[in-house]
Write a structure and sequence with these properties.
Chain B: Belongs to the bacterial solute-binding protein ModA family. The structure holds 2 protein chains of 2 kinds. By secondary structure, chain A is mainly α. Chain A is built from 13 helices and no strands. Chain B is α/β, with parallel strands linked by helices. The chains are: A mainly alpha, B alpha/beta. The interface between A and B is medium-sized, with 22 and 23 residues.
Chain lengths: 261, 255
């Protein structure tokens, strides 16, 4: 028997189509205006490759940091009860809605050379974070972490707690339960969160240019290169944008169907 | 019942808002003629805001709207069809982008600006002259060479025969200065006017090679200006003696 397909009523289909067009048209614009003939040699330019390499490395490092710190935070938010939990959850999501430039200023005021914490880093260890690749990773992790925490927390809430309870009654310690039962249970959620986190880190602009600055090979990621290219060479900016778009779409489409419910 | 009512009301509401939108567009022309839209380099923020007030005071019912930003960005926006009446840029090169697209009348140079070394208050790195910026321990911020202040900085550095490795190349002069104000860099090359505008948070150090990299600021009324006559009048104000006094006070050099 053939499964009946649902047809959307026009009241839903029309706005849905408009929404789709609204999201896709700008991307079409990029494709139409792209200088396809000169594309290969533009892509092979060392400056482009350098920015792309830096973007991929920093986004991956930022995601790793987010996984190490974010999964435990998500667990605490989903599985424990404490009084300030609501407030903590709200604070966790703040970087998602904060203008990234504000995030960059905040990071500069805390970790900068004269910052609250940065001052001591400088005095005691001679470490100054701004204008280093490490600063790029920090800026990216700052804006991307909430995406991971929220996704993983959702997965934890959706996971059946009875498996964990069963393991606990069989004598497993809490850490063992987390490692052997909870983590495999929410693995798809963690992966989905990681992908979202990585994509957000890859596209980070505001916090990076404010906190990490812009220097080729050191702190100039793809989004920064796009912005500066737009000043004098819009075609180069289109080419760079295309690369970012292609990377993001490839990653998201490969994982969306499979991992994000 | 409620859902039914909503189903019926929604298209009506949509049609109504659409009609309102259309009406606004039609009424727009009359009010638009009373607005002068000025695209000006970020370094003109303070002086042009002041001039805007003078202009509004002299023309009743006219509003001056500003779009301040990096000259290169503004030039791109104008060539992409942004509805601007007047363009004042921080370099002849960025103005040329607009004149090459035959969008502007003959531009006139109205001020010029000189670079200075900006250091945080108290000059923690003890910068004395231009050559100090080449020391490896000194953290320097420059404008990216794609924007006028960066192009000027490069010219000055070449004129002095120095090899300066900056820690960052910022997208405009204000962003570059901010890194000094926050004390994150030891020095930056910015315009004299920006040093003056920053007050006592930064100190300026003049250097002789700055004379080799003087930036001329051209201004022009745009050909497709929605507010045609007013655009020309605004340019006249920018070239007036009154404006000259204002610019000189802000640290510009007037021709």
């Amino acid at each position: 028997m053939k499964r009946r397909r649902t047809r959307a009523p026009w009241m839903l289909a029309v706005p849905a189509a408009l929404a789709l067009a609204f999201l896709i048209l700008p991307l079409v614009g990029l494709l139409v205006r792209a200088p396809w003939r000169t594309l290969p040699q533009r892509l092979a330019e060392p400056a482009v490759l350098e920015a792309l390499r830096l973007s991929l490395i920093t986004a991956t490092l930022a995601t790793a940091i987010c996984l190490v710190l974010g999964v435990p935070l998500a667990w605490v938010l989903a599985r424990t009860r404490f009084r300030a939990r609501r407030l903590v959850r709200a604070l966790v999501t703040v970087p998602m809605v904060l203008p990234p430039v504000v995030g960059g200023v905040a990071l500069l005021l805390v970790l900068g050379r004269n910052g609250l914490v940065g001052r001591y880093l400088d005095d005691a260890f001679g470490i100054t974070l701004p204008f280093t690749t490490a600063a790029v990773v920090i800026a990216e992790a700052f804006v991307a972490l909430p995406f991971l925490v929220i996704t993983v927390e959702g997965a934890l809430r959706a996971a059946d707690p009875r498996f964990e309870e069963a393991a606990a009654t069989l004598g497993a310690s809490r850490w063992t339960v987390f490692r052997r039962v909870t983590l495999p249970l929410i693995a798809p959620g963690v992966l989905a969160g990681g992908v979202l986190c990585w994509s957000r880190a890859l596209g980070e602009f505001g916090a990076t240019i404010t906190f990490a600055g812009n220097f080729p090979g050191e702190t100039q990621t793809m989004p920064l290169a796009v912005y500066l290219a737009l000043e004098t060479d819009p075609e180069a900016a289109i080419v760079l944008s295309l690369v970012l778009l292609a990377v993001s779409v490839a990653i998201l489409s490969a994982l969306r169907e499979r991992w994000i419910p | 019942m409620f859902r039914r009512a909503l189903t019926l009301a929604l298209p009506v509401l949509l049609a109504f808002t659409a009609a309102c939108g259309g009406g606004d567009d039609k009424g727009g022309d009359a009010t638009e003629a009373k607005t002068v839209t000025v695209f000006a380099a970020a370094s003109l923020t303070e002086t042009f805001t002041e001039l805007g007030k003078t202009f509004e005071a002299a023309h009743e019912g006219v509003t001056v709207k500003f779009n301040f930003g990096s000259s290169a960005t503004l030039a791109q926006q104008i060539t992409q069809g942004a509805p601007a009446d007047v363009f004042a840029s921080a370099s002849p090169a960025t103005m040329q982008t607009v004149t090459d697209a035959s969008l502007a009348e003959a531009p006139t140079t109205f001020v010029s600006n000189k670079l200075e070394i900006a250091v945080p208050a108290g000059n923690p790195a003890k910068i004395a002259d231009f050559a100090d910026l080449a020391k490896p321990a000194v953290k320097v911020a420059l404008c990216a060479e794609q924007v006028p202040c960066g192009a000027a900085a490069l010219k000055a550095i070449e004129a002095a025969g120095l090899k300066i490795t900056p820690v960052t190349l910022e997208q405009d002069v204000k962003a570059t200065l901010t890194k000094v104000t926050l004390g994150e860099v030891d020095a930056a090359l910015v315009y004299r006017t920006d040093v003056l505008a920053a007050g006592d948070k930064v100190e300026g150090i003049a250097f002789p090679e700055a004379d080799k990299a003087i930036n001329d600021y051209p201004v022009a009324a745009l050909k497709d200006a929605p507010a045609d006559g007013l655009a020309a009048e605004f340019v006249t104000l920018v070239l007036s003696q009154q404006a000259k006094d204002l610019f000189t006070k802000a640290g510009f050099t007037t021709p």
